[in-house]
Design goal:
The chain is α/β, with parallel strands linked by helices and about 260 residues long. About 40% of the residues lie in helices and about 15% in strands. A seven-stranded parallel beta sheet has the order 3-2-1-4-5-6-7, with helices on both faces.
Length: about 260
């Protein structure tokens, strides 16, 4: 299960009766995050660029809830693409309460060697896709005067690593977008926040093996993160109980961002 037990979920964090869209670039974390929302009671609709990613999300949701609540496969980094995704969602669900954007496509290359096509494609996937879907879904949230948007980002939004300039720039852009939407839509009871992850893996790797890596030994918690580590915070940020926090990044990275 994504969260240790349904019985331990505080009633304030319940997502019962809520409907969520989880948009994923295909990363390993998205199925765990979608399952956490489903376990908290939400109906989860998957949006993904590839069928395999959509299958992974719907399988995780079905395993928790026993229900397949729909999916859409295709790009959504254009107005038409985002509208198509929301149209497919609306055919099954009358309203949208939650949007989770997990659109991180990782890219590493020396800055001097990045060409314009690579830069533009990465920004289309990571930044433009987040904005396009947030814009279309946000219009519906503005009409209903309620919504929760959570953008999943990397802690490279605020840190620098060699050969990751293009990727880090996209993460910083999504963080800035998170803050801007929080300010612009706050009066309409829409809360927009970000969850940041660090050095993570969806595999259950023994600690002794993990600690053979220098970056793991540099991390204060001395282990890699797991998507399960993000689950409880995501559910809180998507819940009606998350009423005052907005425009905030919450980094769940084992203390890596606090490290000098």
């Amino acid at each position: 299960m994504a969260i240790s037990s349904q019985a331990r979920l505080p009633s304030e964090f319940s997502l019962s009766g809520q409907t969520a869209i989880v948009a994923s670039s295909g990363g390993d974390e998205s199925p765990f995050l979608a399952a956490a929302l489903a376990e908290a009671g939400a109906s989860v609709f998957a949006v993904a660029r590839h069928a395999a990613a959509a299958d992974a999300i719907t399988a995780a949701v079905t395993a928790v809830s026993g229900r397949d609540t729909g999916r859409h496969v295709g790009r959504w980094d254009t107005p038409d693409g985002a509208s198509s995704a929301v149209h497919a969602f609306s055919a099954l669900h009358p309203r949208v309460d939650i949007l989770v954007n997990d659109t991180r496509s990782f890219f590493a290359k020396p800055a001097a060697e990045i060409d314009l096509a690579e830069w533009d494609e990465l920004h289309a996937r990571n930044v433009r896709a987040t904005f396009m879907l947030s814009q279309v879904v946000g219009q519906r949230m503005l009409e209903q005067q309620y919504g929760r948007i959570v953008n999943v980002i990397s802690n490279l939004a605020e840190r620098a690593v060699i050969n990751c300039s293009a990727y880090s720039a996209t993460q910083a852009a999504v963080l800035s977008l998170t803050r801007s939407l929080a300010v612009e839509w706050g009066r309409s009871e829409i809360r927009v926040n970000a969850v940041g992850s660090g050095w993570s893996t969806a595999e259950d790797i023994p600690l002794e093996t993990q600690r053979e890596e220098l970056l793991v030994r540099y991390t204060p918690m001395r282990r890699k993160g797991h998507p399960r580590d993000l689950a409880a915070m995501l559910v809180y940020l998507c819940s009606p109980h998350c009423d005052y926090p907005s425009g905030q990044p919450v980094y769940i990275d084992g203390g890596l961002n606090a490290h000098p």
